[in-house]
Amino acid sequence: EVTTVRVQDPRVQNEGSWNSYVDYKIFLHTNSKAFTAKTSCVRRRYREFVWLKRQLQKNAGLVPVPDLPGKSTFFVGSTDEFIEKRRQGLQQFLEKVVQNVVLLSDSRLHLFLQSQLSVPEIEACVQGQGPQTVTEAILHYAMSNCGWAQEEESRP
Predict the structure, then answer these.
(1) pTM of the predicted model, to two decimals?
(2) Which GO terms describe its molecular function (predicted)?
């Protein structure tokens, strides 16, 4: 079984305003039975990764959860450099997470990677309080084909 996960295409949202942030495209391609959709493409921001790491730690018991790149407020160097370092760190984090059987069993991870639900919507869905089951939410997003066409077009 192969699972490829790539964090790419960082984009600054609300540039120039006090609430600007960077989000990243997460592209997943797999033949693993653990995943509902075999390909997906979503955009997530750093604080959503922080939430995911916390949830995985809560549910993983003694299984260590990989580290995220730091949240540096005193970064020396260019913003582009910082964003690229963070992108690489987020990719390494996800690569390690999807290789871990225990972490892979967490439905929050699947919704994070394979739906565009917000963090509160993911929580509601996992607790059975959303309008859809975890599988339905992932399949609904996969059927809407949101990020897949972009990914295909941007391939060389």
Answers:
(1) 0.86
(2) phosphatidylinositol phosphate binding
Q: What is the pLDDT of residue 109?
A: 95
Name the one residue in this structure whose structure tokens are 């949101």: 146
φ and ψ at residue 88, rounded to 5 degrees: -65, -40
Strand order in the sheet with 39-45: 3-13, 21-30, 39-45
List, for the chain, all residue ranges whose pLDDT scores fall below the cut of 50.
Answer: 147-156
CB-based contact 40:114 (threshold 8 Å): yes
Identify the CA nearest to 91 among candidates 35, 1, 9, 2: 9
Q: Which range of residues forms the domain containing residue 134? A: 3-153
Question: Can you tell me which residue has the tokens 């959503």?
Answer: 48
CA distance 3 to 105: 14
Q: How many residues does the chain have?
A: 156
Q: Could you give the number of structural domains in the chain?
A: 1
Domain containing residue 137: CATH number? 3.30.1520.10
Instruction: Say how far apart CA 137 and CA 133 lie, in whole Å.
Output: 6
> What pLDDT is recorded for position 103?
93
pLDDT of residue 145: 61
pLDDT for the residue numbered 37 = 87
